[in-house]
Amino acid sequence: MKKIYLFLLPLLALMSCGNSYTYNGFSVETYDVHIDASDWQYTDYTADGLPYANNYFYCTVNMPEITSSVFHNGEVQAYIVYDKRTSKAAKHILPYVRHYEELLSNGQWNYYTETVDCMYGIGWVEFNYRASDFAYEDNVNINPTAMDFTIVVTTKD
Prior knowledge:
Blueprint: E1 2-5, E2 12-23, E3 26-35, E4 41-42, E5 46-47, E6 50-51, E7 57-62, H1 68-73, E8 75-82, E9 90-93, E10 96-103, E11 109-121, E12 124-131, H2 135-138, E13 147-156
Antiparallel strand pairs: 1-2, 2-3, 3-13, 4-7, 5-6, 7-12, 8-9, 8-13, 10-11, 11-12
């Protein structure tokens, strides 16, 4: 594995080329990306000094494999990976959208939707996390967990 520096953060993330092959004139490479819980940054937008009600978490990863040629002529696809090192390992193409319910200590139910998505540009990928109840706007101790992703880069040979 090689260490890469996070584009906007002084923290490190681990990325490795897990697979590379050619098929019908296309080159396909996969990269594993791990984001620790402490790597997530909060947008913390404000309007007129008041908290803005659509904040989210993000983590930008430096990815030199996304060249100008890949950006303009190739394809980049991201997957979130669950239970990576178990027999229950699964990948879900981004964006990942799931609805949840949780029973609170006061006996009330909380319903919310989690969304994990990403965007990319030349040399970088940014992962985003949002929860529809925005509980993290009221409690700054709420933070996304560590997450694993797979990035697939496809280019024409």
